[in-house]
Design goal:
With 225 residues, the protein is an all-alpha fold. The protein contains 12 helices and no strands. The protein has a domain of 133 residues: Tetratricopeptide repeat domain (Serine Threonine Protein Phosphatase 5, Tetratricopeptide repeat, Alpha Horseshoe). It is globular. 40% of the residues are buried.
Length: 225
């Protein structure tokens, strides 16, 4: 990632149809917080290959981060239009996650909940229960969301991941379980604060960190933590 990925620019100029180069440069720019330049590369990938789910997800995330809710809606709506009704589980999972990044993605909740439910039927893994729990939370089905997020944690030997904890905090908050909501938010905050202070550690990918930042901000605002 030398010079924020700009060392790839001559290669891109020489190979403008090689989308993997845009992906590498976009990731490098995003890691440096150069959001607009990164998004430009992700949009170029979509222009050349509309079936690139990673690029759609990244564009949706960056529009939401920029506070452009209308554009976030548009990205989610267009992405669901270009993929087949039954994509593979990896694509299905990413499309569902794209739709739960914000409180409202501009897509009927039944659509992204159905994507997550389909993955559970194919592969009932912790990751897919996590996605379904988040989707149900966005759909306002908080009790079911809690059940699926708890199942995700059970399948991870009771540990879970920060996505589980943040959506559990949100779901418990909405059903009036104040103590449980505070418990899960505190666990997520502890993890995220430790992550931010661990300068020498290996950080998760930029889009994971940015997603967690948005989720945390949303939950804390709702709970006035």
């Amino acid at each position: 990632m030398v010079f924020g990925g700009l060392h790839l620019s001559p290669l891109i100029a020489a190979n403008p149809k090689q989308t993997s180069l845009y992906a590498r440069r976009g990731k490098a720019l995003a890691e440096l917080g150069r959001w607009q330049q990164a998004e430009s590369d992700f949009r170029e990938i979509i222009a050349q290959n509309p079936k690139n789910d990673d690029a759609w997800f990244n564009c949706a995330l960056l529009r939401l981060h920029a506070g452009d809710i209308a554009a976030y809606h548009t990205v989610c709506q267009k992405a669901l239009e270009v993929f087949p009704p039954i994509p593979n589980v990896l694509v299905t999972n990413e499309l569902a996650w794209m739709c739960v990044l914000g409180p409202d993605c501009g897509v009927a909740p039944a659509k992204f909940v159905a994507l997550a439910e389909r993955n559970i039927k194919r592969e009932p893994t912790a990751n897919h229960f996590n996605t379904l729990g988040a989707a149900l939370c966005r759909a306002g089905n908080y009790e079911q969301a809690i059940q699926n997020l708890d199942r995700s944690i059970d399948l991870q030997e009771g540990k879970g991941v920060v996505d589980d904890w943040l959506f559990l905090a949100l779901a418990h908050h909405h059903v009036g379980h104040r103590d449980l909501a505070q418990k899960w938010l505190a666990k997520a905050v502890q993890f995220l604060n430790a992550l931010a202070s661990d300068a020498g550690g290996r950080l998760p990918l930029w889009n994971e960190r940015l997603s967690w930042q948005l989720f945390r901000r949303e939950v804390e605002a709702q709970m006035k933590y």
